[in-house]
């Protein structure tokens, strides 16, 4: 039995909504590390004194690109795990702040899909992802277009888990019998 990671073109249904799981609690450490890795040193995200004294929220706000990155990552197993290419982020809106300690959840709706006009083994899926916090408050909305393979593309390249090696029996692991039970010494 294998777990699905992403979808082929045929498996997408216009109007379907995929609720991503699990959620992710955003810690102060996560936010600070992301800011430092990406060289966003705005004090709104890194300096709690600054945030308390000079902002309407009176506390640090999680950097928007991290919120987006979490939600994009959450959508990969349901949406783009088999993608050939991310073609476009059409729109990205931060509609409410995320704070340290908030938990983000995401879901993605299929808006449209169409077959490639140049290659018959792929298509494009147009999706909208929303992210919301533990209270159900939507914080981020983005739309993207993803080029995904058709079944025939996947079959030509090794199926559901292309490039996966086969474990080789040796002195530490004898392999499996046809029934799937480990062999006895």
UniProtKB/TrEMBL annotation:
Which species is this record about? Nocardioides panaciterrulae
From the Swiss-Prot or TrEMBL record, give the protein name.
Acyl dehydratase
Gene Ontology molecular function, alphabetical: lyase activity
Residues covered by region (Disordered): 152-185
């Amino acid at each position: 039995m294998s777990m699905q990671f992403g979808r082929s073109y045929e498996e997408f249904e216009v109007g379907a909504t995929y609720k991503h799981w699990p959620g992710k609690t955003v810690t102060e450490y996560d936010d600070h590390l992301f800011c430092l890795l990406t060289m966003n040193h705005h004090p709104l995200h890194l300096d709690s004194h600054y945030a308390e004294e000079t902002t309407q929220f009176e506390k640090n706000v999680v950097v928007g690109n991290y919120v987006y990155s979490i939600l994009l990552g959450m959508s990969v197993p349901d949406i783009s795990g088999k993608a050939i290419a991310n073609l476009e982020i059409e729109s990205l809106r931060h509609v409410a702040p995320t704070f340290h300690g908030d938990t983000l959840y995401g879901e993605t709706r299929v808006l449209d899909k169409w077959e490639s006009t140049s290659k018959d083994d792929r298509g494009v899926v147009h999706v909208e992802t929303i992210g919301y916090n533990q209270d159900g408050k939507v914080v981020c909305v983005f739309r993207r277009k993803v080029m995904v393979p058709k079944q025939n593309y996947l079959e030509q390249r090794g199926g559901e888990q292309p490039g996966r090696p086969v474990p080789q029996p040796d002195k530490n692991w004898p392999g499996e019998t046809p029934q799937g039970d480990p062999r006895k010494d």
